[in-house]
Write a structure and sequence with these properties.
By secondary structure, this protein is of the alpha/beta class. The chain contains 11 helices and 8 strands. It binds 3-methyl-2-oxobutanoic acid and sodium ion.
Amino acid sequence: RKKVTIQTLHQQKNNGTPITMLTAYDYPTAVACSSHAVDITLVGDSLAQVCLGYSSTTELTVSEMIHHTRAVARGTTHPLLIADMPFGSYHTGMEDALRNAVRLVQEGRVEGLKIEGGAEIAELVKKLTSVGIPVMAHVGLLPQRHTAMSGYKVQGRNHASAQRILEDALTLQEAGAFSMVVEAVPKELGQYLTEKLRIPTIGIGAGPHTDGQVLVWDDMMNTWNGHKAKFVRRFANVKAERDVGVASYCEAVRARAFPDPQAESYSADKSEWELFL
Ligand code: KIV
Ligand code: NA
């Protein structure tokens, strides 16, 4: 497969080819994405909950993120590789933000960064873009602000809120964002943003009219018992398969049905073994 570039994604918007994006947190998942028509592999900070067992993305550090992006990078071929800037890594001033961004690219080996926020991060987007670090914006529901937003709620339901998201989106585009994740908004707003922006929109819970779709790996694969949002579709049931595997293994060991003495065991050379007897 051909390497996906920012230019490829912009062409996809213009010729109407939907962009496919999936999250990955480790090497085997990165290989899976690279083995199929995934355009963008995202090391999302959902890493915190679905992979590391934290209760919020706000607990994830830059070093933890880098540990995982390096593994994902080793398994990534054609997809564009993006990571989330973790909560706190871009809040304490431009220098800190730049340093963390550089770490994520240099040590973490990602090709671009996704950053949650509206007009208030436009200067940062401009700065990173100016030094050659591509930025994917993220508007609508911002999970890093779930406490301030009183939970994980659909955004842009009334006119004022939708207007604010549209203005943020246009500001981020002007600041140089190369694409934009739009999370948990009415499908009408997902479509409107997609029509108003030159850059590709990638929706999650933003309806069928965005330029692309993204889902969290563990949600779409059903690997865990986490809350299933309305916008999640289960494309596979890994948890069921995995549970069958673990239960059968334990049962077979307890019953001494594993390993099989022939098919799954080595045999000694008879003449050598006789020396013991
Ligand atoms: O962290 C994440 O997985 C994300 C996607 C859901 C867009 O930000
Ligand atoms: Na995220």
